[in-house]
Write a structure and sequence with these properties.
By secondary structure, the protein is α+β, with helices and mostly antiparallel strands. Helix content is about 35%, strand content about 35%. It is globular, with a radius of gyration of 16 Å.
């Protein structure tokens, strides 16, 4: 049912959504979100590097996806998260949820996105013309988890 993929290769958002939605006549709502590497307002991001521990990362994300599936009675869920080197505009992650009703599909997708932003075991480094800095979760990211 639920799928978690951690991969270096880019993904085709349209193809992923089509495959996720195919044959879903039992679900009334399909929600998708795609995160994109954005350039920074105060400096020029040239590369974002994302590291992870293979196996550990997939298990950690899988547990939170299983929680979302149970908590919101999802018919299906998909999480794709990339690692490696990416530039501004590159797709970094995707969440898709399927549920009988939109409220559950949206809530579960937001829950998964909040988790991925602040708790998933990834280490992100932003490389700009000023150098390289590791990225930490912001206070806003942490506060977002409080609602769940």
């Amino acid at each position: 049912m639920a799928t978690v993929r951690v991969q270096e290769a880019p993904f085709d958002m349209g193809a992923e959504v089509d495959a996720f939605a195919k044959g879903r006549t039992d679900m009334g709502a399909l929600v998708t979100f795609t995160g994109v590497v954005r350039d920074l307002a105060d400096s020029d991001l040239s590369v974002m590097e994302i590291e992870h521990y293979p196996g550990m990362t997939e298990r950690a994300i899988g547990k939170i996806v299983d929680e979302a599936v149970t908590r919101w009675s999802l018919g299906d869920a998909l999480v794709i998260h990339r690692y490696g080197r990416m530039g501004p505009g590159d797709r970094i992650m995707m969440v898709a949820t399927a549920a009988p009703h939109r409220v559950d599909a949206f809530a579960a997708a937001e829950f998964l996105m909040d988790y991925l932003k602040s708790r998933a075991p990834f280490w992100k480094k932003e490389i700009t013309s000023d150098g390289a800095d590791w990225v930490a979760a912001t206070d806003e990211d942490e506060a977002a988890l409080g609602r769940w």
